[in-house]
């Protein structure tokens, strides 16, 4: 590979194009070693690439002007059509905007032969510029090709071993919107040795300000395979912190929308994340890739939008929530719903004019049994039963020589006697009322939970003081999921075309079911890390989770290369792996970043003591006692700890990029006060960082999925103690330790958890 580097670079997106410039065939005059400053400006090759960039920009401008000039007056028959068309045109104009911070292309492929041509024909090679969107010139020839087009795939997949007919792969680097660097790989040249990409390294380390950005210029081969896997199958991705799961999931949606636009436009797509601040953090990625229509929601929001839902304002104890989230609850609910059906003992007598028609009880029973056996939704059966009874009446009418038509059948189905019979045999069920009864009426619960839930579990479910009505009940999120399940037993939930489920390890079986019914006829991308499960019901195996989701055949893929966290930091965090997820392999960070980890103990006098080295975390205050209970916040050294934490924040702010101060939820008020006293403004998670406001104070419970260039982690033992059990506490700590891209400072006054103090044999650090 030859690199022509510049100063700090920023690789960016573009579109697909065959080169229409004067350059043809393979680039000659290969150079090695980086280029900087005036040299770079004088590089004739860069000059030519910049000319293609300018020409592509001009072409994009013309595409936009063409759309703006469209006159729709003659083609729209009425104002409704006109409004729809105008909105589509507006969207198209927006999509064709040339954004200065997202360069039009980020790569180039020179194929040895024309794409699709038989090599034996000796067809001349073709060149394509790869970017975020398609741009064509006035003749319709491509200037930039969409990264999702099949012809772009070798940009991500070609290798020395398998060049895929690519002679040259070129990556471009940008500085402040200017094309300033490139890196070449001559994939079919056996004399050139493969090197790691400096542009990839620069892109990962580019300081983070604002929301999450896309990785379209640097998607790695194993990530690309997941991104481009077909719409038909579901995929589950297990990957340690920072392996790009979220990025891959979002790019997969963009890819699927490109490859199956019509189908997904009809059926819809959805991204599910753990909380609002996480969703806010990722919400710009798809729009930056030109996809504006993808909805986002948390599981709570998803079930809250279901019919007949309740307002959540209660919180369950962990023990109760575990039972409510258990898959056995689905069986309890099913039994409870179906228990409303009673087999008829009376005939139905329909009077029409002077005639009476009698459907005997045994015949009614047959109809009811048939509906029960067919196992259709309870509500659908309730709606079908009157027609079935009416049909039985019609058969009798025909037998007696009448010739009734469909209108007669409808009229019979609406007959008061038929309605009364249906109400007695197959009454309507209100899902929320049903759940209310299960949680308040011990006998009703026992009847349907028999053989499924123990007496203790049933007790955990029952409200101590049963509420008087749906409105006064203190519904919890787990209750809302139960109501959602009951809703689906009554009437089928609408399924989308594709659902991406992020941080999936934290869902309960009942939550998986709720998500699964939203993609029952579509497919899913499930993303998660078993080691980061911090709910009491966190999943222990993907096979189980996928079965609850209704996608037992989903392919489980593993991502092991870590892009976010530097090697030193991930090695330190991985000391926790044997305790939190034995069997999982440590992430292999792609980045060496010496000095990225510092562990500081604060002694009783308040003096921070730096650990001698990143991997040797010996500290002066460590007593070796295991962590038990919450740290004593009244202890005299709390203020000293706060001061040391603030000092670490001030130090971190000297770097470019975002800073996250992560602390146990209980420590947030004290740290907020300390930051304010030191005149350090800070944001809450989800609030967008800007160049002027770069420090975020993050409760450990909200850190999942987020990342900061520099992280200060306050008092690890308090993070552990903030959770109901040690394993969950250590998992929460693992999450907090793995949010940093460039540097992590751990500050502690109490002893570190033993697990963190003990280097793990399997760890690289
Ligand atoms: N191929 C890549 N090129 C550049 N950056 C990448 C690449 N893959 C991932 N990253 C970056 O690494 C960081 C971590 O990615 P992401 O948040 O998707 O990881 P994750 O596996 O979801 O992490 P977590 O488990 O902590 O939620 C992000 O900044 C992302 O942009």
UniProtKB/TrEMBL annotation:
Gene3D superfamilies named among the record's database cross-references: P-loop containing nucleotide triphosphate hydrolases
Record region (Disordered): 1-46, 603-636
Top-rank taxon, per record: Bacteria
Pfam families, alphabetized: UvrD_C_2 (PF13538)
Biased segments, Low complexity type: 610-633
Keywords (A to Z) from UniProt: ATP-binding, Helicase, Hydrolase, Nucleotide-binding
Domain UvrD-like helicase ATP-binding: 218-566
Basic and acidic residues bias (residue ranges): 16-33
Residues that hold ATP according to the record: 239-246
GO molecular function: helicase activity
Keyword Transmembrane appears in the UniProt entry: no
Protein name, entry field: DNA helicase
Source species: Streptomyces camponoticapitis
């Amino acid at each position: 590979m030859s690199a022509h580097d510049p100063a700090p670079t920023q690789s960016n997106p573009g579109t697909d194009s065959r080169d229409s410039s004067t350059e043809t065939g393979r680039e000659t005059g290969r150079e090695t070693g980086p280029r900087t400053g005036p040299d770079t400006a004088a590089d004739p090759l860069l000059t030519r690439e910049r000319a293609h960039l300018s020409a592509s920009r001009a072409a994009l401008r013309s595409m936009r002007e063409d759309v703006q000039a469209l006159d729709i007056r003659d083609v729209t028959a009425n104002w409704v059509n006109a409004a729809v068309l105008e909105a589509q045109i507006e969207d198209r104009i927006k999509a064709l905007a040339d954004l200065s911070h997202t360069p039009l292309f980020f790569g180039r492929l020179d194929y040895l032969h024309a794409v699709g041509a038989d090599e034996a024909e000796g067809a001349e090679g073709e060149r394509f510029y790869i970017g975020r969107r398609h741009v064509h010139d006035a003749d319709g020839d491509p200037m930039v090709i969409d990264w999702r087009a099949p012809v772009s795939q070798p940009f991500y997949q070609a290798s020395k071993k398998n060049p895929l007919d690519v002679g040259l792969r070129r990556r471009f680097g940008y500085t402040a919107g200017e094309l300033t660097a490139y890196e070449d790989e001559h994939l079919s040249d056996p004399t050139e040795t493969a090197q790691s990409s400096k542009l990839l390294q620069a892109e990962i380390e580019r300081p983070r300000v604002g929301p999450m950005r896309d990785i379209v210029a640097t998607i790695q081969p194993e990530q690309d395979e997941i991104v481009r896997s077909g719409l038909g199958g579901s995929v589950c991705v297990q990957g340690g912190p920072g392996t790009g799961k979220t990025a891959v999931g979002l790019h997969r949606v963009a890819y699927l929308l490109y490859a199956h636009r019509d189908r997904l436009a009809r059926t819809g797509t959805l991204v599910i994340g753990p909380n609002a601040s996480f969703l806010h953090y990722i919400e710009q990625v798809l729009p930056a890739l030109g996809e504006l229509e993808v909805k986002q929601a948390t599981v709570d929001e998803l079930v809250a939008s279901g019919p007949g839902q309740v307002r959540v304002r209660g919180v369950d104890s962990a023990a109760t929530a575990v039972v409510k989230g258990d898959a056995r609850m689905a069986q309890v609910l099913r039994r409870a719903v179906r228990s409303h059906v009673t087999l008829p003992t009376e005939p139905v007598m329909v009077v029409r004019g002077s005639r009476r028609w009698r459907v005997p009880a045994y015949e009614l029973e047959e109809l009811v049994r048939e509906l029960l056996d067919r196992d259709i939704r309870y509500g659908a059966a309730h709606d079908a039963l009157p027609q079935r009874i009416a049909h039985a009446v019609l058969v009798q009418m025909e037998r007696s020589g009448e010739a009734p038509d469909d209108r007669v059948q409808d009229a019979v189905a609406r007959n008061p006697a038929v309605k009364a019979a249906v109400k007695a045999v197959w009454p309507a069920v209100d899902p929320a009322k049903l759940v209310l009864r299960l949680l308040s009426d011990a006998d009703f619960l026992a009847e349907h939970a028999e053989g499924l839930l123990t007496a203790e579990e049933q007790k955990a479910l029952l409200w101590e003081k049963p509420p008087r009505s749906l409105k006064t009940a203190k519904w919890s999120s787990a209750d809302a999921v139960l109501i959602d399940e009951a809703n689906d037993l009554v009437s089928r939930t609408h399924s989308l075309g594709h659902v991406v489920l992020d941080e999936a390890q934290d869902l309960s079986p009942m939550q998986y079911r709720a998500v699964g019914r939203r993609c029952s006829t579509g497919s899913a991308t499930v993303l998660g890390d078993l080691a980061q499960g911090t709910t009491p019901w966190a999943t222990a195996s993907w096979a189980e989770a996928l079965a609850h989701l209704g996608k037992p055949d989903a392919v489980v893929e593993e991502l092991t290369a870590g892009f976010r966290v530097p090697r030193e930091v991930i090695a330190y965090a991985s000391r926790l792996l044997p305790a939190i997820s034995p069997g999982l392999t440590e992430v292999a960070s792609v980045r060496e970043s010496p000095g990225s980890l510092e562990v500081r103990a604060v002694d009783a006098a308040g003096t921070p003591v730096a650990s001698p080295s990143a991997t040797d975390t010996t500290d002066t205050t460590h007593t070796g006692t295991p962590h038990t209970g919450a740290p004593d916040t009244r202890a005299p050294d709390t203020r000293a700890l706060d001061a040391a934490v603030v000092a670490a924040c001030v130090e971190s702010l000297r770097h470019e990029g975002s800073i996250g101060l992560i602390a146990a939820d209980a420590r947030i008020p004290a740290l907020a006060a300390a930051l304010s006293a030191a005149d350090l403004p800070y944001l809450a998670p989800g609030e967008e960082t800007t160049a002027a406001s770069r420090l975020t104070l993050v409760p450990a419970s909200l850190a999942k999925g987020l990342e900061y260039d520099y992280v200060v982690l306050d008092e690890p033992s308090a993070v552990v103690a903030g959770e109901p059990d040690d394993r969950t506490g250590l998992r929460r700590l693992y999450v907090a330790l793995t949010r940093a891209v460039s540097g992590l400072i751990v500050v502690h006054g109490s002893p570190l958890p033993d697990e963190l103090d003990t280097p793990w044999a399997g760890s690289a650090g």
